[in-house]
């Protein structure tokens, strides 16, 4: 039975996934018919590309799907519809000002400064340690002491508290050299670009081109700033935990994942998985754990703890960073009223004569949706002085009720403690602030939640200091504070996008629980009520009265990931979202690299038991890009626009104001298998299903490793930013 989106009013699932691609190479017998979709009838403006999985939007009758999809070839390139092309505008290692283009480019934002010209800001999220170490000498043109440091670390199980080593210790010097280069490849960048008469975008290399790296300020004294109550904590001379001696000055920004663009032309950059580089836990007064809590770690598989050797204070990371790309003297401001957690999603709602609302999400299993409401109101929506509104207000966390209603609860000292109950959480695990010791602890029963509630009456009982310091400590510990007051644990919110009608679309990527926690299983369900649901959802949130300051809302499920045969739209793990000029919702997927094209000869194990959703994700192929109309007869249907190279993630889609250009990041191609050697290829079998659930076996050709973007034999894979355009020069979604 195929269950369609319109049959659901509320949440019906959560996920982590991806999709693959096809080609028409001469000399093989791979079917070349592809989707039979009319671009004008759908209103999306293009004929979809063919992925590895039969889709409802293919318009192929079920009896032909098995034959048409029985052979499939994965391509190590960006696959786009007919009539489209892409150009590479920058790749890892390219020069930016006095620095270089970083690694794993993510969110993109184009700020127009004139006709067909402006600044492109770029997030650099993390290094894929294995492939970064493998390709660094070839791409950057120098070597680093990886082998020597690995050998030293192996003596202590791969970890070294480098911060505690004497400054004259040669191992510390080598660790510092590696970490400095790795942090140089993280953070933010801004480059000036212009479109030429042929429709191609080129760099103009203005004096404003610059990098704000993971070690900005360490040597150049270009520290980042911070606003809001957390400044009171950071300025303390002494406290329960570690204080770096820099007061409210901050060295660098890293883990910069998704982001958003304000109506007044600044860019918000989200620090997400900062806990991989500095300690996340804090003490009741908001001070950080010591650097030794997260030592430097290195092995063939990767590198972590980059902040350890420099003594970076963990409470200074995990914030939302704002920059003005056009201002060469702006090196970033972290707004503490927006909270400290694993930021990814962000959207700004600005209405004249109203407070601004800044929506954000914590991308962790069991993370929350947040909203900041400013104390001041907007006068002129395009005035850059609006940035000052983020310096004062209140942060709220969302409660999603199973009936489609919701409310916002304040993260302030007087808010009652009312912990999330483990019984309603997938995996039955909730983390709470540990008192008086500091840090966190786990509860697994409702009785433990009740005991915690009886011990602490309000959030103010969990944190210490003056009134402003206590508020700052709550914001620094926002995720655990939100758990303590009963905010809904969700399914990895990875992006938010503001629609023209004022509603907010949220991409929830995966409903599978982990040691971090899990989603509310009353809310995040599969098509038949199953939990967990791995493949993800897109949800629409509407504030009551369309008021940015409203404390109540309604929510509905707009689309669901998963196989069409099981009620899904055909994609897995929706991630970044973007609207085009026609109101179509564009999305990219984020399936874990190890799942890409993972062979699936059978859907049952040796004992005949069905495999889990995570075990069958190879059916979706590579990560991909999709378009979904939000109105009309095709609302909620997913059409495949593009497919990424091998083992990559597509991120940060962003349209120019005229919609003639789509900027897109290609992150970590070849992340698992590295450089593709001599066009290595493997044939794998997949137990697939037609849209109505008929079984068939697909034979799929899969490249081993990647050579993108050079696309020549044995080229090293590199993250890069591309510019997608139509060959006829029309808008991307022109019909």
TrEMBL record:
Region forming the signal peptide: none
Top-level taxon: Bacteria
Organism: Limnofasciculus baicalensis BBK-W-15
Pfam families, sorted: PhoX
Name of the protein: DUF839 domain-containing protein
Classification via InterPro entries: PhoX (IPR008557), TAT_signal (IPR006311)
